[in-house]
Amino acid sequence: AFVDDDEASAEFRRFTERELRDGKVRHALDVQRALEEQGLTVCIEGPSVSSWLGFLNDTRLVLGARLELTEDNQEELADLPDDDPRAALFGLYGWLTHLQESVVQALLGDHD
Questions:
Q1: CB atoms within 10 A of CB 9
Q2: What is the pLDDT of residues 52-84, one digit of tens each?
Q3: pLDDT at 2 over 70
Q4: Alpha carbon distance 60, 96 (integer Å)
Q5: How far apart are CA 91 and CA 60, in angstroms?
Q6: Are 30 and 50 contacting, i.e. CB atoms less than 8 angstroms apart?
Q7: Does the pTM of the predicted model rise above 0.85?
Q8: Domain locations in the chain?
Q9: What is the C-alpha separation between 98 and 112, in angstroms, rounded?
């Protein structure tokens, strides 16, 4: 929040971090509940849309951080051998990206 002021950034984080964390947990629990109630074919509508998009984004961010994903190394990660544990994570990252884009396109009415 404060690029050049470490103290102000720490103070801002102190007041916002818990709320952000609680939101991430809430999104994950909402998605888990939907999957338990609806099975693998889930209708994403109404207030659950923000939970799904938040969960997908949060999960992609975690995977990207674990993979140390950058624009420069995406091709390298895509070419990993199947026995490299990062290959499965990168595959999941790609699938979640596709799912997130599909939800956004459906919301925008772009069904091409």
A1: 13
A2: 999 999 999 999 999 999 999 999 999 999 999
A3: no
A4: 7
A5: 11
A6: no
A7: no
A8: 6-108
A9: 14
